[in-house]
Amino acid sequence: MTGSETLEERTAGLDWPALEAGLGEAGYAVARGLLTPEACEQTIGLYESAAFRSHVVMGRHGYGQGEYKYFADPLPEPVASLRPALYARLAPLANRWNAALGLAARYPDDHADFRRRCHEAGQTRPTPLLLRYGPGDYNRLHQDLYGEHVFPIQVAVLLSEPGRDFTGGEFVLTEQRARMQSRAEVVDLRQGDAVIFAVRERPVSSPRGYARAAMRHGVSRVRSGLRHTLGVIFHDAA
User: Fold this and answer.
1) Of 77, 82, 110, 117, whose CB neighbour count within 10 A is largest?
2) What is the model's pTM?
3) Helices 79-100 and 111-120, interaxial angle, to 10°?
4) d(CA 45, CA 65)
């Protein structure tokens, strides 16, 4: 991928069969270099701008330590282009997951149509967010659920470079299957890499077809520096 490509082209150029295979096998997959270093720095620079609707200090709510801000509409670039481009590629997989789990919900091809469904149900607030962690900060394991309508896959893009901008701060996933202990996974990310992962649950093969595996995600303690992440959630919030 070259820096002159649009985000739509970069998204379309990803190896989607391999990404879908990773999501099916482990509940996550990594898209390397989705954002250029320049786009990462541009996005980090938005943090002190007026592009946001709310500011959350995590320690006040028991979420961990650190802070994040939810973007307001209209979403700025690169979020405005990235959200619908990723959704269009993930909606068919999301529909297959729901079919495997016996869930009735199906997702339209176009993200604007899905947002319209959210808004009709009172979920009108955009959920893409920019997170910032400093030394000692971390994010407890959680699920990003904001209302009745939940798109089952989300994306996080690491905007900072490990080892240069920060140390520690690994992205962590856990999977819980029935009658089993939790499985933990630490995801290796570099600047501009995107991890695509299950929001709440995913289908896993079982002797009787498919079972549900519950997923949670978080960030380990940052040891030094500043870590910035762009979170792309496709359902809106009530």
Assistant:
1) 82
2) 0.96
3) 80
4) 21
User: CA-based diameter of the chain, in Å?
Assistant: 52
What residue spans of the chain are helical by DSSP H? 7-12, 16-26, 37-44, 79-100, 111-120
All structural domains of the chain: 7-232 (2.60.120.620)
Measured between alpha carbons, how far is residue 207 from residues 150, 181, 214 in Å? 27, 19, 18
Matching residue, tokens 């949670």: 216
CB 65 within 8 A of CB 137: yes
Q: What is the pLDDT along the chain (238 residues), one digit of tens a residue?
A: 445 689 999 999 999 999 999 999 999 999 999 999 999 999 999 999 999 999 999 999 999 999 999 999 999 999 999 999 999 999 999 999 999 999 999 999 999 999 999 999 999 999 999 999 999 999 999 999 999 999 999 999 999 999 999 999 999 999 998 888 999 999 999 999 999 999 999 999 888 889 999 999 999 999 999 999 999 999 999 9
Cα–Cα dist 176/215, whole Å: 6
Burial 152-179 (b: 16+ CB within 10 A, else e): bbbbbbbbbbbeebbebbbbbbebeeee
Residue 121 CB burial class (10 angstroms; 0-12, 13-18, ≥19): middle
